[in-house]
Design brief:
The complex is a heterodimer of chains A (about 270) and B (about 240). The mean pLDDT of chain A is about 90. Chain A contains eight helices and ten strands. The N and C termini of chain A lie far apart (about 40 Å). Helix content of chain A is about 30%, strand content about 25%. Chain A is an alpha/beta fold and about 270 residues long. Chain B is an alpha/beta fold and about 240 residues long. Chain B has one domain: Metallo-dependent phosphatases (Purple Acid Phosphatase, chain A, domain 2), CATH 3.60.21.10. The longest helix of chain B is centred in the first third of the chain and has 13 residues. The radius of gyration of chain B is 19 Å and the shape is globular. The two termini of chain B are about 15 Å apart. The model of chain B has no long low-confidence stretch (mean pLDDT about 95). Classes of the chains: A alpha/beta (about 270), B alpha/beta (about 240). At the A-B interface, α6, β6, β7 and β10 of A face α7 and β7 of B. β6 of chain A pairs antiparallel with β7 of chain B.
Chain lengths: ~270, ~240
């Protein structure tokens, strides 16, 4: 059975509709969403309502969490004070626009979903704000999957889709304790684990303006990364019309190289 | 090069602290003294020890303290940790122990305890009560090496000194590797990463303390008050 995983919709209705159409055309019935339904984009209510209408199992993203709990990330989430101000402006605008009913819905979203040995989260099992980038330390990446009790971890948040398999791992240790002058050497064989990042539907940052998501074949385990064209102009116009910072439209229409990104993406906000 | 002394788990016991200070006076080259938390506990009034830590006597090696699990619980219960309360303590040991802890530490010490840091980074060493993940994190020789490596990686240090489990041990990551295969929209590529040579050191608690020589990487596990700085195991 095929299973589509989507993430980081960011209130971009045109992109979401195009991705749903692509999924539907392939006859895929199971969809899982990894959160960030809102933020940056101009149609937060429409996107949340479409998720609800389609009854898509969804976990809570960092933007969804912040809209419910108030801004709780530190300035480290942004690469500059200017970017932070724009982010706060988007937060304020989204907070004003989103209906109470849709806020209540976001508040009910779980931070993770589990299906057997598959775990679905927004950022990492530790935090909705932690970035699992494709080149992060391989042992740390494996630790995130293994400690969460999963074989495959599906995540988003980075807006860069990838599939990373961690295999043939081992760690050798030598232990000396105070009650023994002997030291014992041991080797731990590490399990094979996989991280699948679904990219972003509503704010791609992978070098193209196309929306991305992944299709997981649950029978043979293969994962296909999909790119979908959508009406970028329509979303950009809506961003400008809504009075949101125009840079959000500009970067959507240009792609990754103009997107703002925290310098230390591995940082986990501890505020 | 100067040596470091590391102790923890004094839990209000001034006598143990004085034993350690006496031992350290007989050690050569020990110039820095770290106390990695659990200065307080519910078992006795902690006032005398806290006063001594805050106002060292002439001749004392000046203690550099961080907070530990017991301080974190006290500070949570008394409003220094936002909405959080001492739930871990309450759950594990009951309301009576929460009350005993509150009685054991005079409120005049709370602000000072709240000013203590989570840990120190000295040279390429991390000095923390639990781990880089949490003050309650208990690292032992039996912990998964994957978790130990993660805690070292989070701090980007080569040695992590921990106190939470109360044991004295030295665990070295001596080797290993992992392969990583990444597929994205630009194609596929493989990477191999090797385990960096790094070490976790459990410093002990109470009378069990540790000396460390950063110049030689030599560690001595000691017990205060034993005959002539006795129970001693050195690892070079």
């Amino acid at each position: 059975m095929h299973h589509a995983v989507i993430s980081c919709l960011h209130a971009n209705l045109a992109a979401f509709e195009a991705v749903l159409e692509d999924i539907d055309r392939q006859g895929i019935e199971r969809i899982t969403c990894l959160g960030d339904l809102v933020g940056y984009g101009p149609q937060p209510n429409e996107v949340v309502e479409l998720i609800r209408h389609r009854a898509i199992p969804t976990c809570q993203g960092c933007w969804d969490e912040d809209i419910i709990d108030g801004l709780n990330a530190c300035e480290c989430s942004y690469p500059s004070q200017l970017a932070e101000r724009r982010g706060h402006r988007a937060h304020q605008w989204t907070d004003e626009q989103l209906s109470q009913d849709n806020k209540d819905f976001l508040a009910t979203l779980p931070t993770s979903l589990r299906r057997g040995r598959q775990l679905f989260v927004h950022g990492s099992p530790n935090s909705q704000h932690e970035y699992l980038l494709p080149d992060m330390d391989a042992f740390a990446a494996l630790e995130r999957v293994e400690t969460a009790g999963a074989d495959t971890l599906f995540c988003g948040h980075t807006h860069q889709p990838y599939v990373r398999e961690l295999r043939d791992g081992s760690i050798r240790v030598r232990v000396q304790s105070s009650d023994s002058s002997q030291s014992a050497e041991q080797e731990l064989k590490l399990p094979v684990r996989r991280i699948v990042n679904a990219g972003s539907v509503g704010e791609p940052r992978h070098g193209s303006t196309k929306a991305t998501y992944v299709i997981h074949d649950e029978d043979n385990g293969s994962v296909e990364i999909k790119e979908v064209s959508y009406d970028v102009e329509r979303t950009c116009r809506a961003i400008v019309d809504a009075g949101l910072p125009e840079v959000f439209a500009w970067r959507l229409s240009h792609g990754f190289e103009y997107a703002e990104r925290a310098e230390d993406a591995s940082h986990v906000c501890e505020r | 090069m100067e040596r470091w002394a590391l102790a923890s788990g004094l839990k209000g016991d001034l006598e143990i602290y004085e034993q350690i200070q006496r031992d350290l006076k007989r050690q050569r080259g020990v110039e820095t003294f770290f106390v990695l938390g659990d200065l307080i506990g519910p078992g006795q009034n902690c006032g005398d020890l806290l006063n001594r830590l805050r106002n060292p006597l002439r001749g004392d090696l000046i203690p550099q303290c961080i907070y530990g699990w017991w301080e974190d619980q006290l500070l949570a219960e008394t409003g220094f940790r936002g909405d959080r309360k001492a739930e871990a303590l309450r759950l594990n040991q009951g309301e009576d122990v929460v009350e005993a802890l509150l009685k054991a530490v005079d409120s005049s010490h709370r602000q000072w305890l709240a000013s203590l840091q989570f840990g120190f980074i000295e040279l390429d060493c991390g000095l923390i009560h639990g781990s880089s993940a949490d003050v309650s994190d208990e690292l032992t020789p039996e912990s998964s090496p994957l978790i130990l490596l993660d805690r070292l990686t989070r701090l980007d240090v080569n040695r992590l000194f921990t106190a939470r489990c109360g044991k004295q041990f030295r665990l070295e990551l001596t080797g290993g590797e992992i392969d990583s295969h990444v597929k994205d929209l630009e194609g596929q590529h493989d990477q191999q990463q090797v385990v960096p040579k790094r070490t976790i050191i459990g410093i002990g608690a109470g009378t069990a303390y540790t000396l460390y020589d950063p110049g030689s990487d030599h560690i001595s596990f000691l017990t205060a008050g034993s005959t002539s700085v006795s129970k001693r195991l050195g690892f070079g």
